[in-house]
Amino acid sequence: MAETQATELDGPRFGPATGGEADALVVMLHGLGADGNDLIGIAPVWAREMGSVAFASPNAPYPCDMAPFGRQWFSLQSRDPADMLAGIRGAAPMLNAFLDAELARLGLGADKLALVGFSQGTMMSLYTALRRPAPVAGIVGYSGALIAGDLPDDPVTAKPPVLLVHGTADEVVPFGAMEAAQTGLTAAGVAVESIARPGLGHGIDEVGLGAGAAFLRRVLGV
């Protein structure tokens, strides 16, 4: 299904909680049928230990075509990997433009940017960040999947460290997607850490939040 009515990305922001200039930026990418408000609520929790960090959670560019509300980065009417990859490729330039604009606004370099994705947002984060001109500091991917690895005509050009967190009882994106992503990323030369959450469905729990915060503090140096 062709995507239409795309707009320049925007969405809720938070911080820095210290009130000063930002030392780093975390951009949070929501899942299918949600919007930027879905993840920005995590920012005040993480800001307790990362007060100098700015957070942004852009709304995906398209209205969700599987629900009467919410947004999507690309259509999931077809789960064919080729169709999903085409959708990701279509949305990636808009995401890159948003990332570049936020870095410029805050006066930060790519090494002070981290991406956090949930579900479809993880798919976007992994694809886009691994192909930016300059590597970001890191990627946290919750309950997601790697849609494309190192493609001959679309190669991985940046290799930031990645943390993957996935519930073993995920009913939306199968838990096996985490192992497949780790295998694909490792083959592409990307350093990957993974955490399985026993019994967790399609969501983020306290352990996952804590692991994400620790990873972000480490890679961003805050």
From TrEMBL:
Pfam families cross-referenced by the UniProt entry: Abhydrolase_2
Tagged with keyword Hydrolase: yes
Sorted UniProt keywords: Hydrolase
Entries under SUPFAM superfamilies matching the protein: alpha/beta-Hydrolases
Phospholipase/carboxylesterase/thioesterase domain: residues covered: 21-218
Family annotation (Gene3D superfamilies): alpha/beta hydrolase
Example of a GO MF term: hydrolase activity
Signal peptide: none
Source species, domain of life: Bacteria
Protein family per UniProt: Belongs to the AB hydrolase superfamily. AB hydrolase 2 family.
Protein name per UniProt: Phospholipase/carboxylesterase
Species annotation: Thalassobaculum litoreum DSM 18839
